[in-house]
Amino acid sequence: MAKLREIYNYEDPRFSPLRDAARRATAAYQDAERGMDALKEWVLVAFGLVHTSDAIHRLAHKQPKRFDGIGDILHQRNLMQEYPTTPEYRNRPEDMDGVFSEVIRLLGDIEDALRDCVGASEEVGLYSLARQFENLQMETSKSYETMLYAWQMYDKTDGSATSYDNWVEKLFDGEEA
Q: How many CB atoms neighbour CB 31 within 10 A?
């Protein structure tokens, strides 16, 4: 009789497609956390937008909770989550449009990687896991939408950084980014 780890592992063709997809998704979350943490520093120090910086910072710190969800999904089939190394984030956008563009790009990278997790799960008939990866996509999509809204309002500002930053505080008041 085979032992559990001999059956439920990434070498088994039923689970092997999940390994690379889950690694990419975990890395995308890690990249987003690191990038957003760096961007919140840039927004605070270079642009002086305290509340916007705080909103980006809160969003950065949601990412580890979200990528823990990948592990929770994999654990349902006794599979381990792997944590690939991620590079240092070095971008320094010239303006707030560049900052918002970077945050949106990072969130888009997560959505793309999760889409691969959904596809890999469906490819091997693990439909319940695919739906759970879609739930993670929906959480990311909500953050994406909120950041697009914040960016849109920034574009419509009359040039008053203080007014915009106070509006951002109200947008995210009591709500995580």
A: 20
CB 148 within 8 A of CB 104: yes
Task: State the amino acid at position 31 in one-letter form.
Answer: D
Q: Are 67 and 25 in contact (CB under 8 A)?
A: yes
pLDDT digits (tens, 9 = 90+) for 25-54: 999 999 999 999 999 999 999 999 999 999
What is the rounded CA–CA span in Å between residue 89 and residue 97? Answer: 18
Given a contact cutoff of 8 angstroms between Cβ atoms, the answer to whether 8 and 79 are in contact is: yes
Nearest to 145 by CA among 106, 177, 110, 98: 177
Amino acid letter, 11: E
Q: Please provide the average confidence, as pLDDT, over all residues in the chain.
A: 92
Spatial distance between the Cα atoms of 38 and 53, rounded to a whole number of angstroms: 10
Please check whether residue 161 is in contact with residue 47, taking contact to mean a CB–CB distance below 8 angstroms. Answer: yes
Q: How many CB atoms lie within 10 A of CB 86?
A: 16
Distance, in Å, from the CA atom of 29 to the CA atom of 68, rounded to the nearest integer, reads 10
Q: Please tell me the pTM assigned to this model.
A: 0.91
Q: What percent of the chain has pLDDT over 90?
A: 78
